[in-house]
Amino acid sequence: MNKNELxxxxxxxxxxxxxxxxxxxxxxxxxxxxxxxxxGANIENASYGLANCAERSAIFSxxxxxxxxxxxxxxxxxxxxxxxxxxxxxxxxxxxxLIGFDTPIYLANRGAETTTSIRExxxxxxxxxxx
Length: 131
Ligand code: THU
Fold this sequence. Notes:
The chain is an alpha+beta fold. It is 28% helix and 21% strand. The protein is built from four helices and five strands. The chain has helices at 3-14, 54-64, 89-98, 118-121; strands spanning 26-32, 37-41, 72-79, 105-108, 113-116. A hairpin with a 4-residue loop joins strand 1 and strand 2 (37-41). The longest helix is centred in the N-terminal third of the chain and has 12 residues, at 3-14. The radius of gyration is 14 Å and the shape is globular. Tetrahydrodeoxyuridine binds at residues 19, 22, 24, 26, 42, 44, 51, 53-55, 85, 87-88, 91.
């Protein structure tokens, strides 16, 4: 599967966003080396701080199905905003442990896209190596 196909699956996942508070939809899709894909969307709550971001939904879904870091090929995260949304700080920390530093992360909105990685997004990360 190429980058555009994975990004399109993330847009498909975005349709399931539950966003009655922010009205800001985000979608994500984890691609595994064996071709399996796992969707995620942002899921909000009346207790606002309990919202789960799309990329965390996707990576937790993958892990819940037995996937581990070494099985992951790439992650796509998309939003419908005017700008390309980069993962929030909490998601960077989670992704650092669960997808690794150099796995490609494709970020896109309807008009633009870029590729990044946790190495770029979370310099000087605190990791399990520090414990
Ligand atoms: N959100 C994500 O799902 N991923 C991001 O990378 C940034 C923010 C969600 C959380 C919340 O539901 C909405 O976007 C507005 O912050």
